[in-house]
Amino acid sequence: MDHTIPHLSRRGFVAGAAAQAVKGQPQASRKAPNILYIMTDQQHAGMMSCTGNRWLKTPAMDSLAKAGTRFELAYSSNPVCMPARTSMMTGRYPSHFGIRGNQGRPIPPEEQAHALGNLLRGSGYRTVFGGKTHWPSSMTPESIGFEYLTADERDELADKCAGFLRERHESPFLLVASFINPHDICYMAIDAYTRAENLPAMYPKNQTERKCVAAASALPPGVSRQEFFASHCPPLPPNHGATEGEPGAYGQYGSFRGWARRNWSAEDWRLHRWAYCRLTESVDSQIGRVLEALRATGLDRTTVVIFSSDHGDMDASHGFEHKSLPYEESARVPFIVSWPGHIPAGAIDRRHLVSSCVDLLPTICDYAGVQAPNGLPGRSIKPVASGGTVSDWRRELVIECSGGRCLRTRRYKYTVWEGPVPREMLIDMEKDPGEMTNLAAKPAFASVLADHRRLLRQHIESREDNYGRSLLSTA
Fold first, then answer.
1. Distance (Å, rounded) from C-alpha 183 to C-alpha 193?
2. Could you give the CA distance from residue 198 to residue 138 in angstroms, rounded to a whole number?
3. Is the distance from CB of 141 to CB of 168 less than 8 angstroms?
4. Which of 76, 119, 267, 455 has an alpha carbon 20 to 30 Å from 21's alpha carbon atom?
5. Is 137 exposed, middle or buried (0-12, 13-18, 19+ CB in 10 A)?
């Protein structure tokens, strides 16, 4: 396939293909709900005060949880920006496109024709996207069916979204508000590493991010450093240490990630956690401005709001920051669905495994009354969010990683990783929620290990995941 098609030609192809894809499909009526999807970047599931985290205040996110259903077992399809975000917009696992990390491959125009924006636009929705994209270069908001409201990822995005909501709307809309934070936390370890090793700065043009990290790292006014660490700063997490029997590759990380794990003091890690909280509060404030406009216009009564993040951050757990690992802090994300009068208020779902990326497109299509493409790996969570009973809900889900594959069942989490032994990890999530003990080599768990290998193999074979096959062939 020739991927050097000029941008306008590719957009024309996609628009035409999208029209063909939805030909004969009923148009959305004015009674169809509006849909607002709000996403943050690099926010793990525990980074909301409604989860019991007392080290930050997130009133906007909490208000969505109070008005809707919060899913406790929602996992990214791949806890890195580009693969997760591509998955959200297409409903496909990243492996479908051969994407493992932030080095993306072109997404064929025929796949983009069935992406989220094109599906809803072809059924009468006005589709608008604002903020961070971070997709493969072949994908643009326009090529997947969106008007591009703004490329800003911070305050301007909040204001533009609020302004859009205050407009007069003749047809139902899908608005995607894609905020950057708390992703700025990445620069804390990156810059500490380059300074310590006398290396050139990484990403030298990203000065806005650095200013935000500096502001988030500042101590409260009038508080001494001693008092700060005694009373204000989050402690180290209980699972700060390495997992007993962790995969061999985890101990071989280089660059800033391995450097921080080897060299940061307890105070360094705690300050990182403090800044992560402040950056999360910052994006919560921006989200609050969007929700204020939604409620002031009365649109909250006719709008489904979905809130999530592309992936989490290790947040000092197991001696790591950043993402990409299958640990809970990296892979498990917030996922809230709110629609007053249609979704139970204040509900917390701890039973259903949700794939926050591949389930997103089918869910939005379901609420919009739009037929999702056949053969997608995800499914709509609308019946679950509405408080109904779904007897055939999935019993396991897959988390793809740049260096491995993970299978999460209700009780266990199984990971197979490339690199030196040990390569497999089995965690009892009921007895060991901090993921501190690898059970894969323990004879008492041989049958559990075998079952999870088999289930993961079935998932990999069903999706023709060649990288996953290569991992299992040597497990």
1. 18
2. 36
3. no
4. 76
5. exposed
For the CA atoms of 96, 100, 103, 108, the dihedral, rounded to the nearest 10 degrees, stands at 0
Q: Which of 34, 47, 58, 14 is nearest to 339 (CA)?
A: 34
Please name the residues in contact with 233: beta carbons below 8 A apart, sequence gap of 6 or more. 270, 271, 273, 274
For 245, phi then psi, to 5°, come to 80, 30
Let me know the angle formed at the C-alpha of 20 by 372 and 82, rounded to the nearest 5 degrees: 50
Query: pLDDT band at 30, cuts 50/70/90?
Result: low
7-184+276-386 belongs to which homologous superfamily?
A: Alkaline Phosphatase, subunit A (3.40.720.10)
For 288-329, how does the pLDDT look when each residue is reduced to its tens digit (9 = 90+)?
999 999 999 999 999 999 999 999 999 999 999 999 999 999
pLDDT tens for 418-441 read 999 999 999 999 999 999 999 999
What are the residue ranges spanned by the domains of the chain? 7-184+276-386, 398-473
Residue 266 to residues 129, 158, 263, 287, 288, Cα–Cα distance (Å): 40, 35, 10, 32, 33
Fold match flag (7-184+276-386 vs 398-473): no
C-alpha–C-alpha distance, residues 251 and 2, integer Å: 41
Alpha helices in 314-436 (DSSP H): 328-331, 360-368, 382-385
Fold of 398-473: Arylsulfatase, C-terminal domain (3.30.1120)
